[in-house]
Write a structure and sequence with these properties.
This protein has about 500 residues and is α+β, with helices and mostly antiparallel strands. Helices cover about 45% and strands about 25% of the residues.
């Protein structure tokens, strides 16, 4: 029995998946991201160097063909001139100047925190956040680049995740790249790049993530495809080793979910040796390797590929409500449908209309002339048919009138016969009126109530009732009654006619 139920459940699950896939295809818009084409270069500034990755998106796949890692200068953050130089060399080497460029900043350069505002601010959330920015962060709107992602709302507040960084730091890199004819389209934070890669690798999975880079690491939490929390550390706290600091953060995040009855896996961006060390230090947790599980075809020089840079490119391939862009302070404006697609469809409709209305009329005239000729040839025969049809209708009307008259008389006689057999012997009628729908009787009887009961049980009558008060006639010593009733439905009338025919045969 259990196996039978399991098979039914499996069939139901597969049918649901197939139905969702079919609906996704049928409801797919021609302007959907799945059908778009894109070429992206992601420039990721990280603790151990500058990582570059070039990817191309087509409606059928996402492909990453080139990547490169440039170590930092003298163990310090890469300068804007250094980043501009290596990006220019990468672009010239692979001839990809027409690609869109995305700049991914380290998590340590930004503040990412949850905040709330009254629900009334939802309609103009970007302006309200800009006005209140100095209350949420140490920076004001004049010296900050920021963006936000809405996490949810309740009856009173709207909750959002705010990402902020210093505008002068971002501007210095943008200007250096602009001098090399490289225009940055989007600026994101590494935490959102990792989120995008995890989301594409483990769809709809909740997880704690951890990204290790030499003596720095990032950590955070993803729920329902949204980044809810993010943090980073560049060195261990006093009295603690590097691994102890990582273990402490991961344990704290995991314990918070365990208290709520959930146990989240830990997705790690690190090599296999580091993951094995974490497994030994945290034996009760489930670990997954982001580098091994992602299914995107990587370039041959995989050692120079960064998960953050890969995620930053994926972040630009698809629209996501939680995507951020520190260059646009309000990226929540309603997106317009691409006008090229609209213009193409309008042109196709106009061409079809022109073909329909402007095509030569000669052929249509010839068809009309041929139809007129045939109609004229058929007119004598049509007149004869119409004459015969009128005669047939008249005869049918006469036959119907005769049948109605006959059936009505037969029905009346049968009602009188049935009523005569039904009424008590000491009862007589002084008046009987039968119409198409009702029967009225008037007379004398020893018990008027007994007549009502007998008539109600008849197969011909319904709604039997006294039409006027009944009184006792002293001369006759009987009840004088006036009763009205209705004939039953057509089905009963048909049954009555059948009985009449049967009686006639007898």
């Amino acid at each position: 029995m259990i196996n039978y139920q399991k098979k039914i459940l499996d069939v139901y699950t597969e049918a649901g998946k197939a139905g969702r896939a079919i609906w996704k295809i049928l409801s797919l818009s021609l302007a959907d991201d799945m059908l778009s084409f894109a070429k992206v270069v992601c420039i990721s500034i990280e603790a151990d160097g500058v990582y570059l990755v070039y990817g191309e998106k087509t409606p059928w796949r996402s492909h990453f063909s080139h990547c490169r890692c440039y170590p930092p200068e003298e163990n310090k953050p890469p300068s804007p001139e250094f980043v501009a130089g290596v990006v220019s060399g990468f672009v010239n080497e692979y001839k990809i100047a027409k690609a869109a460029f995305v700049l991914c900043l380290p998590r340590a350069w930004a503040m990412i925190q949850q905040a709330e505002l009254p629900l009334a601010a939802k309609e103009n959330l970007s302006s309200v956040i800009s006005f209140e920015l100095d209350r949420f962060t140490p920076l004001s709107k004049d010296n900050a680049c920021f963006d936000y992602a809405v996490l949810g709302e309740d009856l009173k507040n709207v909750k959002f995740l705010l990402a902020v960084t210093r505008s002068d730091r971002v501007q210095s890199y943008l200007e250096a790249l602009q001098t090399r004819n490289i225009k940055i389209k989007k600026v994101i934070i590494s935490a959102f790049a990792i989120k995008s890669l995890i989301q594409n690798t483990y769809p709809k999975a909740d997880a704690i993530y951890l990204s290790l880079r030499s003596n720095a690491y990032e950590y955070g939490v993803m729920e329902n495809g949204l980044l809810y929390r993010s943090g980073c550390e560049s060195k261990a706290s006093e009295g603690k080793s590097f691994l102890e600091g990582i273990t402490e953060h991961v344990t704290a995040l995991s314990d918070e979910f365990i208290r709520n009855g959930r146990r989240l896996p830990v997705v790690v961006d690190a090599d296999e040796a580091q993951i094995n060390v974490l497994r030994n230090r945290l034996p009760g947790m489930k670990f997954a390797s982001l580098n091994l599980d992602n299914k995107f075809k990587a370039p041959k020089q995989q050692k120079e590929l960064s998960a953050v840079a890969l995620g930053g490119a994926l972040d630009s391939f698809r629209s996501d409500p939680q995507n951020i862009n520190l260059l646009h302070r309000d990226n929540r404006a309603q997106k317009r449908m691409p006008w090229v697609l609209t213009a193409f469809l309008i042109a196709v409709i106009a061409a079809m209309a022109a073909f329909h209305f402007l095509m030569p009329l000669t052929y249509e005239r010839q068809k009309l002339d041929e139809m007129d000729r045939r109609i004229r040839a058929l007119k004598p025969a049509i007149k004869k048919v119409e004459s015969l049809r009128d005669e047939a209708a008249a005869i049918a009307g006469d036959i119907q009138a005769i049948d109605d008259f006959k059936n009505q008389n037969d029905l009346t006689m049968n009602i009188i016969k049935d009523m005569t057999a039904m009424l008590p012997p000491n009862t007589w009628l002084t008046r009987l009126k039968i119409t198409d729908k009702t029967v009225d009787i008037e007379g004398f009887s020893a018990s008027a109530t007994e007549i009502i009961l007998k008539l109600e049980n008849s197969q011909h009558f319904q709604k039997v009732e006294f039409a006027s008060p009944t009184y006792r006639d002293p001369r006759q010593n009987k009840d004088r009654f006036v009763i009205k009733m209705e004939l039953k439905t057509e089905n009963n009338a048909n049954n009555l006619q059948k009985e009449m025919k049967y009686d006639a045969k007898k």
